[in-house]
Amino acid sequence: MMESQLLPGEHSTMVLLIDDQAIVAQSVRRLLANQPNIDLHYCSDPEDAIKVANDIHPTVILQDWVMPSIDGPGLLQLFRANPSTAETPIIVLSSEENPEVKSQAFAAGANDYLVKLPDKIELIARIRYHSKAHLNRIQRDEVFRRLRESQQQLSESNVALISLNQRLEEASGKLNIAVREAEQLTLEAIKLAELVDILQSCQSVEEAYNISRGSLPSILPSKSGALCITSSSRTIVEAVAVWGADSTEKAFAPDNCWALRRGKAHMVKDSTSLLRCAHITGAPEGGTICVPLAAQGETLGMLYLEFPSESPDHVGALGRQTIAVAERISWALANLGLREVLRSQSIRDPLTGLFNRRYMEETMERELRRAARNEQGVAVLMLDVDHFKRFNDTFGHQAGDTLLRALGNFLNQRTRGQDIACRFGGEEFVLILTGAHLEAAHKRAELLCEEISQLTVLHAGHVLEKISFSIGISIFPAHAATVEELLSVADQALYRAKKEGRNRVAVGPDR
């Protein structure tokens, strides 16, 4: 038996409940009633659970621990052995508050354990938490898949280019002019391959733009041109790399370029033509070509090139070469963008936008070694939101998330370029101040306490309650010499600040 209340939307939270007691299903349904984007599917027979899960693809599974036909551990093992539910979060519902039973549930593959019937707020929070984590994992896997496809396409493009070079070399023995053209094409292909390889090694798109500005003039058959990139809002195209004569606007609307309008290369040989792009400011004698940069179904921008006036007979060949260069650059920039997305996901906390704990610990280890070589200090500020549990209980977990996001923006705006702000866990944050001594760190902490008390946070049209920080400080090398010790000293100082009344700063003892 199965009941369904399916709502459209690929981001809905799909909950599958398996319990042989209909009264439990009715109670859970009441708890989840009127919750946006939470769909409850009930299965009373555990023997039908796998089939139902394969049909609806739940993002969270709630299952009873004691059932007549299949026991809880057995059903958990079936779910983990089933490919479509092997990674699906499973919350065990049990009437027993027994540590041994909890241990058995987690050992069998459960992700969470609740004593039924649980508190409504807690149940909804856990369902949303596990569902969001599950959907994030699916999104991450999709990004990895797209990255692999992009790399494969780049590899295939490299193979095609090598094949072209081989054919040109075979024809070199027939005509001397073909020899010279083949040598020139080979040289340009090598430069392009090197450029693509360098672009793939760039750490950011800004670095890639700077490298393109210096390399494209030696690869493309023109002394003047520009690499233009569409903004994230899709309303502006900006020239990020310009060389030679300044004959195109630095920023213009996409509709001002015929290549972007039509989605294909646009060549104009006569500068007086009515089909000349509106973003061209000069009157190039040899003509122009605009080639859209596109990869993975997305238009990234446009490559603009002026043809040299002394080579009118080679315009067609030069245009084809420009299109080939644009194609290779498109895939390289798209691949770089995907890697930036993956890197951001691996080092950033998704809720606050701050660095995560893993990135903080790795970076802090490096900063301590640098500080030791330069005989400088490093300050660690551990911050904790006072009475955060009471805040959550009063305003709800969604308001708590809104507050944490606001705190992430607050700390990012008050962090120097060389400092590190991270979410340590829950409502705790850590600031790493490089080159800072105790007096400067203490002033910084006092300023943060003062400024956070003035922070205004809006949620659901209402101003949330003001908050305060308790802050613990530790200094390298005065208080400790390792990452673990510095964090421990800062944590002890934070505990003392809490004990002494909160909304204050405490400093760890010298070792």
Q: Can I get a quick summary?
A:
By secondary structure, the protein is an alpha/beta fold. It is 48% helix and 19% strand.
Written account of the structure:
- With 511 residues, the protein is of the alpha/beta class.
- Helices cover 48% and strands 19% of the residues.
- It has 14 helices and 19 strands.
- It has a 6-stranded mixed beta sheet with strand order 1-3-2-4-5-6, with helices on both faces. A 6-stranded antiparallel beta sheet has the order 9-8-7-12-11-10.
- A hairpin with a 2-residue loop joins strand 11 and strand 12.
- Helix 5 packs antiparallel against helix 9 and helix 11 packs across helix 12.
- The longest helix is centred in the N-terminal third of the chain and has 52 residues.
- The chain is globular, with a radius of gyration of 30 Å.
- The termini are far apart.
How is this fold's topology laid out?
Blueprint: E1 2-3, E2 13-18, H1 22-32, E3 38-43, H2 49-56, E4 60-64, H3 72-81, E5 90-94, H4 99-108, E6 112-115, H5 120-171, H6 176-201, H7 205-219, E7 225-230, E8 237-243, E9 251-252, H8 258-262, E10 266-268, E11 288-295, E12 298-306, H9 315-347, H10 357-374, E13 378-385, H11 388-395, H12 397-413, E14 420-425, E15 428-434, H13 438-452, E16 458-459, E17 462-463, E18 469-476, H14 483-499, E19 505-507
Parallel strand pairs: 2-3, 2-4, 4-5, 5-6, 18-19
Antiparallel strand pairs: 1-3, 7-8, 7-12, 8-9, 10-11, 11-12, 13-15, 13-18, 14-15, 16-17
Helix pairs in contact: 5-6, 5-9, 6-7, 6-9, 11-12
Notable features of this structure?
single chain; 511 residues; alpha/beta; six-stranded mixed sheet; six-stranded antiparallel sheet; globular; disordered N terminus
